[in-house]
From TrEMBL:
Residues covered by the DUF7591 domain: 239-338, 561-660
Protein name, as recorded: CUB-like domain-containing protein
Species name: Caenorhabditis brenneri (Nematode worm)
Domain CUB-like: residue ranges: 18-134, 341-454
Top-level taxon of origin: Eukaryota
Keywords, comma-separated and alphabetical: Signal
InterPro entries referenced in this protein's UniProt entry, alphabetically: CUB-like_dom, DUF7591, DUF7592
Keyword Glycoprotein among record annotations: no
Record has Mitochondrion as a keyword: no
Ranges of residues in domain DUF7592: 145-221
Signal peptide: 1-19
Length: 663
């Protein structure tokens, strides 16, 4: 036993004593199997960096083949101020890596070198991996209007061009942690074979615009991240006379100051986003002018100019716009802005599956916080292409006036008004969702979103033929595929005709499962008060959350209902007397009842020559019960009808029914 322990200790000591020393001129090349390379070889990212002895000079050369980029992860810490760790890229730019915590670096094809000089003991480890560039998906010309790109959301390559050249400014989502900008590489030329300039991380650190030498640039983001960093791309002809030209990038709800010193020339800064920028204070030369542009610095974008001699008397001044330019004619200026509370952002499903709240400090046990007037922002919700999930969204909102708007746009482009919400849940498929908020007066707004897995098993497969099917759709978690020859017709019958939010949990797709084309929820289908018919034979209906509510869904072969215009549900409260009007014109129209109550027809007004046909079941010979002439039916009232599915079909014209439903 002691011998085994001694051997292990010797081996352990040997491994880590070797790791304390490094050599110069080592070449690291991409292996044929494409696996990453580690130094030391036994280190990995889950371990602290090993010790490196003092008084060493080491270097590595990393080869990056054509068509590939390299991701470099370093964990390092120098032991004193005179030691140095440095990267030199293919364009000769040098990067200090004295204190690295594994935030990835990205480099283009060519070679990079890493050099280390330790006077005192330090820690150091690295990992390098190679991957091919993403495909070029965008090619665009930049003209009189600027372009904003969500630059790190997806992996993509893009070629941009302009007549005189291009101007770039980056706007990170997090002003304190913007390492995600390292994944975006910029080249001059048509593609990644052009001259490598830098990454957006280094460009942003200059806090000044970068301008190309030629008419074409290529921008490639090699790794998608859940961060909404933005890149402003402009025709350089509109910005090259500005020196300096900075970004205005402040946190939401913050008060921030910005100073620029243009001397005898023009200077400026630009805001990108959806917050209101309220100018609270300004110091500007008496004879200077502040010009504000919404868009580019040209006649199309021009908004207004303010004289340095009078602008302070006009404060505060609010400005709104996705791109707002502040251009000073000359001299030194200092601005103080108050930014609104609401900022556009992307929200993705967390790896731990926890719900996400906005604002982060809000929860369902609190009242919704207030939003200030004059705010415009959006929230992009997504599950980053992970299939099999749905979104559950709770919104608490109250707009302050009729001009304020809160909306949801789902993945199929349907827009929902959420200006007055009381936390009745919304349910959406696992594709993207956008919430847009605009306030013209003080309003209330908060939301919670979470992602849950769909029920994994289709519990029912039903062929719809000559008989209709009635499903208790919301009292259990339920998934069903229905199919018919011509198509399927759906009508929803909520248990409570005044409160039918429970229908939101039932999602409808065309196809065999939830990978098909998303149509809508039953809540929105019911609000149309007419049948929905599929374009094909198969539909998939899934209720994702059980409710203690007996909502019902009537599923029929569309061949029996396609000729009915309109065709609506007869959905009335128990023990109530209710009226229903059909306007069929020259074509047939109809009502359908689904339930267990007796429907007693108390009164009817219909065309003299029209006919009312009643069916128990589908509108076919099997379901036919009886027909009544418009000229005589009133003399036969009251008429009771009993059946789980009762159809009232009118041959033509306008008809008004009055029913008494049993308790």
């Amino acid at each position: 036993m002691y011998t085994s322990v001694f051997i292990f200790f010797v081996l352990f000591s040997a491994v880590y004593s070797d790791a304390n020393k490094c050599s110069s001129g080592d070449l690291i090349q991409r292996p044929n199997n494409g696996y990453p390379i580690y130094w030391p070889a036994l280190w990995n990212e889950n371990e602290p960096a090993p010790q490196l002895a003092g008084n060493q000079y080491c270097s590595w050369y990393i080869d990056i083949p054509s068509g590939y980029y390299a991701q470099l992860i370093i964990r390092a810490k120098t032991g004193d101020n005179s030691s140095s760790f440095q990267i030199t890229d293919s364009s000769g730019l040098k990067y200090n890596i004295d204190h690295e915590k594994e935030e990835p670096w990205y480099f283009p094809s060519g070679s990079i070198s890493i050099s280390i000089h330790t006077n005192a003991p330090a820690t150091f480890a690295l990992k390098v991996s190679w991957a091919q560039y993403p495909a070029t998906t965008i090619a665009g010309g930049i003209g009189t209007s600027p372009l904003i790109v969500n630059i790190t959301k997806d992996a993509f390559g893009a070629q941009y061009n302009a007549v005189t050249g291009l101007s770039l400014l980056a706007f990170p989502a997090d002003l304190k942690n913007y390492y995600s900008l390292r994944s975006t590489l910029v080249f001059e030329g048509n593609d990644y074979n052009g001259r490598f300039v830098s990454n957006l991380y280094e460009m942003y650190k200059t806090h000044n615009q970068w301008m190309s030498n030629g008419a074409y640039i290529y921008v490639v983001n090699v790794e998608a991240s859940n961060v909404l960093n933005q890149l402003l791309i402009q025709e350089a002809g509109y910005t090259k006379d500005l020196n300096p030209y900075h970004e205005l990038n402040c946190a939401p709800s913050s008060t921030c100051s910005k100073s620029i010193h243009g001397g005898n020339s023009k200077s400026g800064f630009v805001y990108v986003g959806n917050q209101t920028q309220t100018l609270l204070d300004i110091t500007i030369d008496y004879n200077a002018t502040l010009s504000v542009y919404h868009g580019s610095q040209n006649s199309a974008g021009y908004y207004k100019s303010y004289a340095g001699s009078t602008i302070r008397s006009l404060l505060p001044l609010p400005f709104n716009g996705k791109v707002v330019q502040y251009i000073v004619s000359s001299g030194k200026s200092m601005f103080t802005f108050k930014l609104s509370e609401c900022q556009s952002t992307s929200i993705y499903r967390p790896d731990n599956g926890a719900p996400v709240y906005w604002p982060r400090t809000w929860n369902e046990n609190q009242t919704a916080p207030h939003l200030a007037p004059n705010q415009n922002c959006y929230f992009y919700l997504s599950n980053t292409n992970q299939k099999g999930y749905y979104m559950r969204l709770i919104v608490r909102s109250k707009s302050g006036d009729s001009s304020s708007k809160f909306t949801i746009t789902d993945s199929s482009g349907v827009v929902y008004n959420i200006s007055h919400e009381k936390e009745d849940p919304w349910f959406f498929p696992d594709q993207s969702l956008t919430i847009i908020v605009y306030t013209s007066s003080r309003s209330e707004f908060a939301f919670k979103v979470e992602w849950n897995l769909f029920p994994q098993k289709t519990q029912h497969n039903a062929a719809i033929g000559i008989n209709p099917v009635v499903v208790n759709i919301t009292n259990d978690v339920y998934a069903a595929e229905f199919y018919s020859v011509i198509g399927c017709s759906l009508l929803a019958f909520p248990a409570d005709v005044n409160n039918y939010y429970s229908l939101r949990s039932t999602l409808v797709y065309e196809g065999q499962d939830y990978n098909g084309r998303y149509v809508s929820t039953l809540y929105d289908i019911y609000k149309t008060h007419t049948q929905w018919m599929s374009n094909a034979g198969n539909i998939y209906v899934i209720n994702v959350e059980a409710r203690s509510v007996l909502d019902q869904l009537l599923v029929q072969e569309a061949g029996y209902t396609v000729d009915l215009k309109p065709y609506q549900e007869l959905s009335c409260a128990r023990s109530s007397t209710c009226s229903k009007t059909l306007k069929g014109g020259k074509s047939k129209s109809g009502l359908a009842y689904a339930g267990n109550q007796t429907q007693t027809l108390l009164d009817i007004t219909m065309d003299y020559n029209a006919t009312l046909s009643v069916y128990y079941g589908s509108q076919n010979s099997n379901g036919f019960y009886r027909s009544y002439n418009g000229s005589t039916i009133r003399s036969q009232l009251p008429l009771p009808f009993i059946g789980k599915v009762v159809q009232y079909i009118v041959s033509s014209g306008t008809t008004m029914f009055t029913f008494k439903l049993s308790g």
